[in-house]
Amino acid sequence: MTSLAVAPSEAEQSAAPRPGHLSLGKAFALVATHAVLVVGAVVMLLPFVWMFATAVRPPSEILAHPLDPFPRAFHGVENFTQALKTAPLLKFMANGVIVCAGILIVQLLVAIPAAYALAKLSFPGRSLLFGLVIAGLCIPIQVPALPLYIALANLGLLDTYFAMMVPFFISVFAIFLFRQTFKTFPDEIIQAARVDGVGEIEILWRIVVPSAWPAIAAFSVFSVVAHWNDLYWPMIVIQRLEYAPPPLGMLFFTGTESGANYGSLMAGATIITLPLVVLFLIARRRFVQGITMTGIK
Fold first, then answer.
1. What is the pLDDT of residues 224-241, one digit of tens each?
2. pLDDT tens, position by position, 137-147
3. Cα separation of 208 and 260, whole Å?
4. CATH topology of domain 86-294
5. pTM for the complete prediction?
Protein backbone atom coordinates (compact mmCIF):
# COMPACT_ATOMS: atom_id res chain seq x y z
CA MET A 1 0.00 0.00 0.00
CA THR A 2 1.35 3.39 -0.92
CA SER A 3 0.67 6.58 1.04
CA LEU A 4 -0.03 9.85 -0.66
CA ALA A 5 1.47 13.11 0.69
CA VAL A 6 -1.17 15.75 1.18
CA ALA A 7 -0.05 19.25 0.31
CA PRO A 8 -0.91 21.90 2.91
CA SER A 9 -3.68 24.27 2.05
CA GLU A 10 -3.11 27.97 1.35
CA ALA A 11 -4.68 28.89 4.71
CA GLU A 12 -2.31 26.61 6.58
CA GLN A 13 0.64 28.01 4.67
CA SER A 14 -0.33 31.58 5.51
CA ALA A 15 -0.90 30.72 9.19
CA ALA A 16 2.48 29.02 9.60
CA PRO A 17 5.28 31.32 10.86
CA ARG A 18 7.72 32.29 8.16
CA PRO A 19 11.45 31.99 8.74
CA GLY A 20 12.96 35.33 9.75
CA HIS A 21 9.59 36.79 10.84
CA LEU A 22 8.65 37.47 14.46
CA SER A 23 5.33 36.39 15.84
CA LEU A 24 2.91 39.09 16.95
CA GLY A 25 3.53 38.37 20.64
CA LYS A 26 7.32 38.51 20.30
CA ALA A 27 7.14 41.70 18.27
CA PHE A 28 4.92 43.33 20.90
CA ALA A 29 7.28 42.24 23.70
CA LEU A 30 10.26 43.63 21.76
CA VAL A 31 8.53 46.97 21.17
CA ALA A 32 7.41 47.18 24.82
CA THR A 33 10.94 46.40 26.06
CA HIS A 34 12.50 49.09 23.89
CA ALA A 35 9.79 51.57 24.90
CA VAL A 36 10.58 51.00 28.59
CA LEU A 37 14.31 51.39 27.89
CA VAL A 38 13.72 54.63 25.97
CA VAL A 39 11.59 56.04 28.80
CA GLY A 40 14.25 55.05 31.33
CA ALA A 41 16.97 56.66 29.23
CA VAL A 42 14.98 59.88 28.95
CA VAL A 43 14.39 59.98 32.71
CA MET A 44 18.12 59.42 33.37
CA LEU A 45 19.34 61.94 30.80
CA LEU A 46 16.79 64.70 31.42
CA PRO A 47 18.58 66.20 34.49
CA PHE A 48 21.84 66.42 32.53
CA VAL A 49 20.12 68.00 29.54
CA TRP A 50 18.36 70.48 31.82
CA MET A 51 21.61 71.29 33.62
CA PHE A 52 23.38 72.05 30.35
CA ALA A 53 20.40 74.02 29.01
CA THR A 54 20.40 76.17 32.16
CA ALA A 55 24.17 76.63 31.87
CA VAL A 56 23.78 78.31 28.47
CA ARG A 57 20.70 80.45 29.27
CA PRO A 58 20.87 84.14 30.08
CA PRO A 59 19.71 85.09 33.61
CA SER A 60 16.48 86.59 32.30
CA GLU A 61 15.35 83.22 30.90
CA ILE A 62 16.20 80.97 33.83
CA LEU A 63 13.33 82.04 36.07
CA ALA A 64 11.01 83.16 33.26
CA HIS A 65 7.43 81.89 33.22
CA PRO A 66 6.54 79.94 31.22
CA LEU A 67 9.98 78.40 30.80
CA ASP A 68 11.01 77.63 27.25
CA PRO A 69 12.58 74.15 26.97
CA PHE A 70 15.19 75.55 24.59
CA PRO A 71 17.22 78.73 25.25
CA ARG A 72 16.20 81.62 23.06
CA ALA A 73 19.61 83.28 23.47
CA PHE A 74 23.01 81.64 23.99
CA HIS A 75 24.76 82.83 27.15
CA GLY A 76 27.09 79.87 27.65
CA VAL A 77 30.42 81.63 27.23
CA GLU A 78 29.54 84.19 29.90
CA ASN A 79 28.23 81.59 32.34
CA PHE A 80 31.19 79.23 32.00
CA THR A 81 33.68 82.09 32.21
CA GLN A 82 31.96 83.42 35.32
CA ALA A 83 31.98 79.97 36.91
CA LEU A 84 35.72 79.54 36.33
CA LYS A 85 36.46 83.03 37.65
CA THR A 86 34.19 82.83 40.69
CA ALA A 87 35.49 79.57 42.18
CA PRO A 88 38.66 77.48 41.68
CA LEU A 89 36.81 74.67 39.90
CA LEU A 90 39.99 73.28 38.36
CA LYS A 91 41.52 73.02 41.86
CA PHE A 92 38.42 71.22 43.09
CA MET A 93 38.68 68.80 40.17
CA ALA A 94 42.40 68.23 40.83
CA ASN A 95 41.56 67.43 44.46
CA GLY A 96 38.93 64.99 43.23
CA VAL A 97 41.44 63.26 40.94
CA ILE A 98 43.95 62.89 43.81
CA VAL A 99 41.34 61.49 46.21
CA CYS A 100 39.69 59.13 43.71
CA ALA A 101 43.01 57.84 42.36
CA GLY A 102 44.44 57.29 45.85
CA ILE A 103 41.33 55.44 47.02
CA LEU A 104 41.13 53.29 43.89
CA ILE A 105 44.79 52.24 43.94
CA VAL A 106 44.65 51.12 47.59
CA GLN A 107 41.28 49.42 47.09
CA LEU A 108 42.66 47.35 44.22
CA LEU A 109 45.87 46.46 46.08
CA VAL A 110 43.83 45.23 49.06
CA ALA A 111 40.77 43.72 47.36
CA ILE A 112 42.46 41.69 44.60
CA PRO A 113 44.64 39.50 46.89
CA ALA A 114 41.79 39.13 49.40
CA ALA A 115 39.37 38.07 46.67
CA TYR A 116 41.88 35.60 45.23
CA ALA A 117 42.37 34.02 48.64
CA LEU A 118 38.62 33.65 49.15
CA ALA A 119 38.13 32.23 45.65
CA LYS A 120 41.11 29.92 45.07
CA LEU A 121 42.84 29.13 48.38
CA SER A 122 41.61 26.60 50.91
CA PHE A 123 42.07 27.53 54.57
CA PRO A 124 40.03 27.25 57.79
CA GLY A 125 37.40 29.95 58.20
CA ARG A 126 37.19 30.89 54.52
CA SER A 127 33.39 30.63 54.45
CA LEU A 128 33.14 32.66 57.65
CA LEU A 129 35.34 35.41 56.22
CA PHE A 130 33.25 35.53 53.06
CA GLY A 131 30.13 35.80 55.21
CA LEU A 132 31.69 38.78 56.98
CA VAL A 133 32.38 40.35 53.58
CA ILE A 134 28.71 39.96 52.66
CA ALA A 135 27.70 41.44 56.02
CA GLY A 136 30.07 44.34 55.44
CA LEU A 137 28.08 45.32 52.36
CA CYS A 138 25.24 46.30 54.72
CA ILE A 139 27.29 48.77 56.78
CA PRO A 140 27.12 52.38 55.51
CA ILE A 141 29.82 54.99 56.08
CA GLN A 142 27.61 56.75 58.64
CA VAL A 143 28.15 53.90 61.14
CA PRO A 144 31.94 54.30 61.66
CA ALA A 145 31.96 58.02 60.87
CA LEU A 146 32.18 59.27 64.47
CA PRO A 147 35.01 56.95 65.64
CA LEU A 148 36.94 57.70 62.45
CA TYR A 149 36.52 61.45 62.95
CA ILE A 150 37.70 61.27 66.57
CA ALA A 151 40.73 59.18 65.59
CA LEU A 152 41.70 61.53 62.77
CA ALA A 153 41.23 64.57 65.03
CA ASN A 154 43.44 63.06 67.74
CA LEU A 155 46.13 62.30 65.15
CA GLY A 156 45.93 65.80 63.68
CA LEU A 157 44.99 64.49 60.23
CA LEU A 158 41.86 66.53 59.58
CA ASP A 159 41.96 68.80 56.51
CA THR A 160 44.19 66.39 54.58
CA TYR A 161 43.77 64.18 51.54
CA PHE A 162 44.47 61.17 53.75
CA ALA A 163 41.45 61.99 55.94
CA MET A 164 39.17 61.89 52.89
CA MET A 165 40.63 58.61 51.63
CA VAL A 166 41.25 56.39 54.66
CA PRO A 167 37.64 55.23 55.36
CA PHE A 168 37.40 53.76 51.86
CA PHE A 169 40.73 51.93 51.55
CA ILE A 170 39.02 48.57 52.18
CA SER A 171 36.07 47.96 49.86
CA VAL A 172 34.02 44.87 50.69
CA PHE A 173 32.13 45.39 47.44
CA ALA A 174 35.40 45.10 45.51
CA ILE A 175 36.32 41.93 47.39
CA PHE A 176 32.92 40.43 46.61
CA LEU A 177 33.02 41.47 42.95
CA PHE A 178 36.53 40.15 42.31
CA ARG A 179 35.87 36.95 44.26
CA GLN A 180 32.93 36.20 41.97
CA THR A 181 35.14 36.86 38.95
CA PHE A 182 38.06 34.76 40.17
CA LYS A 183 35.73 31.83 40.92
CA THR A 184 35.16 31.46 37.17
CA PHE A 185 38.90 31.19 36.41
CA PRO A 186 39.87 27.55 35.58
CA ASP A 187 41.52 25.74 38.49
CA GLU A 188 43.49 23.58 36.04
CA ILE A 189 45.55 26.57 34.88
CA ILE A 190 46.38 27.52 38.46
CA GLN A 191 47.32 23.96 39.34
CA ALA A 192 49.58 23.73 36.27
CA ALA A 193 51.32 26.95 37.28
CA ARG A 194 51.86 25.60 40.80
CA VAL A 195 53.35 22.40 39.40
CA ASP A 196 55.78 24.55 37.39
CA GLY A 197 56.89 26.21 40.61
CA VAL A 198 55.11 29.53 40.16
CA GLY A 199 54.26 31.25 43.46
CA GLU A 200 50.77 32.36 44.43
CA ILE A 201 51.57 36.06 44.13
CA GLU A 202 52.93 35.60 40.62
CA ILE A 203 49.94 33.42 39.68
CA LEU A 204 47.63 36.15 40.88
CA TRP A 205 49.19 39.17 39.18
CA ARG A 206 50.51 37.53 35.99
CA ILE A 207 47.85 34.92 35.23
CA VAL A 208 44.58 35.62 37.02
CA VAL A 209 44.42 39.43 37.07
CA PRO A 210 44.90 39.91 33.28
CA SER A 211 41.76 37.84 32.71
CA ALA A 212 39.80 40.01 35.15
CA TRP A 213 40.35 43.42 33.54
CA PRO A 214 36.64 43.86 32.66
CA ALA A 215 35.66 43.40 36.31
CA ILE A 216 38.46 45.72 37.43
CA ALA A 217 37.31 48.35 34.94
CA ALA A 218 33.70 47.99 36.11
CA PHE A 219 34.69 48.45 39.75
CA SER A 220 36.94 51.38 38.85
CA VAL A 221 33.97 53.17 37.31
CA PHE A 222 31.86 52.44 40.40
CA SER A 223 34.59 53.64 42.75
CA VAL A 224 35.51 56.82 40.90
CA VAL A 225 31.89 57.91 40.42
CA ALA A 226 31.03 57.21 44.07
CA HIS A 227 33.96 59.12 45.55
CA TRP A 228 33.94 61.92 42.99
CA ASN A 229 30.33 62.64 44.01
CA ASP A 230 30.80 62.03 47.74
CA LEU A 231 29.79 65.01 49.87
CA TYR A 232 29.02 63.44 53.27
CA TRP A 233 32.52 62.50 54.44
CA PRO A 234 34.50 65.46 52.97
CA MET A 235 32.00 67.83 54.58
CA ILE A 236 32.92 66.31 57.97
CA VAL A 237 36.73 66.25 57.72
CA ILE A 238 37.48 69.20 55.40
CA GLN A 239 37.14 72.86 56.39
CA ARG A 240 39.79 74.44 54.17
CA LEU A 241 38.84 75.36 50.63
CA GLU A 242 42.14 74.24 49.09
CA TYR A 243 41.41 70.59 49.95
CA ALA A 244 37.77 70.58 48.86
CA PRO A 245 36.74 67.91 46.29
CA PRO A 246 34.22 68.85 43.57
CA PRO A 247 30.92 68.40 45.51
CA LEU A 248 32.19 70.23 48.60
CA GLY A 249 33.73 72.90 46.40
CA MET A 250 30.39 73.43 44.70
CA LEU A 251 28.80 73.78 48.13
CA PHE A 252 31.26 76.56 48.99
CA PHE A 253 30.66 77.99 45.52
CA THR A 254 26.90 78.16 45.95
CA GLY A 255 27.06 79.38 49.53
CA THR A 256 29.48 82.27 49.21
CA GLU A 257 30.00 83.32 45.62
CA SER A 258 27.32 82.66 43.06
CA GLY A 259 24.31 84.15 44.81
CA ALA A 260 21.31 83.90 42.51
CA ASN A 261 23.37 83.34 39.36
CA TYR A 262 21.99 79.91 38.53
CA GLY A 263 23.52 80.01 35.06
CA SER A 264 27.08 80.06 36.38
CA LEU A 265 26.13 77.52 39.05
CA MET A 266 24.90 75.06 36.41
CA ALA A 267 27.97 75.82 34.30
CA GLY A 268 30.16 74.83 37.25
CA ALA A 269 28.13 71.66 37.76
CA THR A 270 28.57 70.83 34.07
CA ILE A 271 32.33 71.29 34.30
CA ILE A 272 32.75 68.93 37.27
CA THR A 273 30.35 66.36 35.77
CA LEU A 274 32.11 66.19 32.41
CA PRO A 275 35.07 64.02 33.56
CA LEU A 276 32.68 61.31 34.78
CA VAL A 277 30.87 61.25 31.45
CA VAL A 278 34.18 60.97 29.58
CA LEU A 279 35.37 58.20 31.93
CA PHE A 280 32.22 56.16 31.36
CA LEU A 281 32.36 56.60 27.59
CA ILE A 282 35.95 55.36 27.57
CA ALA A 283 35.31 52.38 29.85
CA ARG A 284 31.72 51.52 28.88
CA ARG A 285 32.61 48.31 27.00
CA ARG A 286 34.78 46.97 29.80
CA PHE A 287 32.15 48.11 32.29
CA VAL A 288 29.40 46.07 30.64
CA GLN A 289 31.71 43.05 30.28
CA GLY A 290 32.64 43.23 33.95
CA ILE A 291 29.03 43.34 35.10
CA THR A 292 27.98 40.41 32.88
CA MET A 293 31.02 38.30 33.87
CA THR A 294 30.22 38.49 37.58
CA GLY A 295 26.53 37.79 37.16
CA ILE A 296 25.46 41.03 38.87
CA LYS A 297 22.42 42.60 37.26
1. 999 999 999 999 999 888
2. 898 888 999 99
3. 54
4. MetI-like fold (1.10.3720)
5. 0.80
